[in-house]
Write a structure and sequence with these properties.
Elements: H1 2-19, E1 21-29, E2 32-33, H2 34-37, E3 43-50, E4 56-57, E5 59-61, E6 66-72, E7 75-84, E8 98-107, E9 112-118, E10 120-122, E11 125-127, E12 141-142, E13 146-148, E14 151-156, E15 164-173, E16 176-185, E17 189-193, E18 202-210, E19 218-219, E20 223-225, E21 228-230, E22 233-237, E23 249-250, E24 274-280
Parallel strand pairs: 1-9, 10-19, 13-22
Antiparallel strand pairs: 1-2, 1-6, 3-4, 3-7, 5-6, 7-8, 8-10, 9-24, 11-14, 12-23, 14-17, 15-16, 15-18, 18-22, 20-21
């Protein structure tokens, strides 16, 4: 009887040990380990969540430019991680921080899978308003976002290791997309004009940063509006005394252009800001 119990105990223990899966990988920025590229980004947070479950914190080590999630049950997981110069709360695309995410990665029983992340710097816009704070306006009715002069300056904090920038002003009416205006610069500010098309109701602004080898280093962060948030940065022309009040129309706001939509990043593996997956047998 005693031998049976011991055998049962060992079987259960070994089965439990075998079920633990893991995810791990490297953290890079501008093609280099993040610790070497940006040592000042010493604060970090990483979380994973299996489909239908809550987020849980996992290991992340900025000094080692690595992350690891241990003792995972088999299934499909989402991953989010952030690095910053100051303490990080929940990792989300926040102005002035580094961010990466993976929408879905599956692990089998006992598998140890490697997922390497290329982090992006979340652009911190400083003019015409500060996107680290609540951006004026809303995303509930057209025109969206903040009112700005017909000709205004868009300025931003320098993106680490960036050599040049591309600013895309996507022009929209309340009924759909009209055109894109792209401005190339090595500065951290550009002058933009609104209402170049009479049908234009608002702009979506995107700042893309490139290193010396042409890698995209940036992404647009979540911007907080009145009662909502969005990765799209909206502005519209301010009404003056000669203009009729703006006409409000209800519709679903369009999504911001990302690096992939603009054809600037090749999607690799399953992660938009991640990298290749490598599976290692236990």
């Amino acid at each position: 009887m005693r031998r049976r119990r011991m055998g049962w105990f060992l079987t259960v223990a070994l089965a439990s040990w075998a079920e633990g899966a893991a995810l791990h990988g490297s953290l890079r920025y501008a093609g280099r380990p993040v610790a070497a590229a940006l040592p000042a980004f010493a604060y970090s947070k990483a979380v994973v969540a299996r489909a239908g479950e809550s987020w849980r914190s996992v290991e992340i080590d900025p000094l080692a430019s690595s992350w690891r999630a241990r003792d995972l049950a088999p299934g499909t997981y989402a991953v989010q991680l952030a690095l910053a110069r100051t303490p990080v709360g929940f990792p989300a695309p926040t102005a002035g921080q580094l961010f990466a995410w993976l929408s879905a990665v599956s692990v089998a029983e006992g598998e140890d899978k490697a997922v390497d992340f290329d982090l992006a710097f979340c652009v911190h816009v400083t003019s015409p308003y500060d996107n680290a704070r609540q951006w004026p306006g809303n995303t509930r009715h057209c025109p969206y976002g903040a009112a700005a002069p017909a000709v205004f300056s868009l300025a931003w904090e320098p993106v680490p290791l960036a050599r040049r920038y591309r600013v895309v002003a996507s022009r929209w009416s309340c009924n759909g997309w009209l055109a894109d205006t792209a401005v190339e610069t090595t500065a951290t500010a550009v002058t933009l004009s609104q209402r170049t098309d009479p049908a234009e109701a608002f702009l979506i602004l995107t700042v893309l940063a490139f290193d010396e080898e042409g890698r995209v280093l940036s992404m647009m962060p979540h911007t907080q509006y009145e009662g909502s948030s969005s990765t799209a940065l909206y502005v519209h022309a301010a009404a003056n005394s000669r203009e009729a009040p703006e006409r409000w129309e209800w519709c679903v706001p369009p999504r911001a252009w990302g690096a992939e939509q603009l054809g600037l990043v090749r999607r690799r593996g399953a992660a938009r800001r991640g990298g290749k997956e490598r599976s290692r047998k236990p």
